[in-house]
Structure formats: C-alpha cells, structure tokens
Amino acid sequence: MKNMKNPNFILGIVSIVLIFIGIGLKANGYRASDVVLIGGVILGGIHWVWSITDVVKTLGINSRSGMFWLILVIVVPPLGGLFFYMMRSKQVRM
Predict the structure, then answer these.
(1) Which of 9, 21, 57, 73 is the most exposed place for a label (fewest CB within 10 A)?
(2) DSSP letters for 35-86
(3) What's the predicted TM-score (pTM) here?
(4) What are the boundaries of each domain within the chain?
C-alpha cells in the first residue's frame, strides 16, 4: 500500500483521469478538451519515462523479473507503470 503513495503512481492516476476528462469534453464539443488532453498526454509521458527508470533502478535488466516489468511498462505505457507500483514490494534502490 505504501507504493501507491509514490509520486509517480499518483502522476499516472492524474494523467489517466485527465485523458478521460478530455475525451468526455471532446465528445461534448468543448474547446478546452484539447488543452486537457494534451496535459494528460504530457503527464502520461512523464509517468512512462519515470516508470522505466524506476524499473531499471530497482530491479535491473539482468533479472527475469526486471525484464518482465520493463517489457510490461514499455508495451502498456499508461497501465504498466501503475501495475509496477501496485505489485512490487518496497525495495532498496540499487
């Protein structure tokens, strides 16, 4: 549960929420939808890069679990990082 308080986990949740809000605004014809969508995508990109670096720093790329998480985070950008923070135990960084 402590990993769900990680700033990057919160950033990922905020980016997904903003993307859904932007899609809803776009469907209803609001002009501000583009700004909200772009903000959500930018925050999602920051979350994605931060998640990749956290996977490499914590697990390394030489272990099987490290490779699994790295592939998951790269292939499923918005959700892979969130799953990584929810599933991993608190570890000391290398």
Answers:
(1) 57
(2) HHHHHHHHHHHHHHHHHHHHHHHHH-SSSHHHHHHHHHHHHSHHHHHHHHHH
(3) 0.83
(4) 2-87
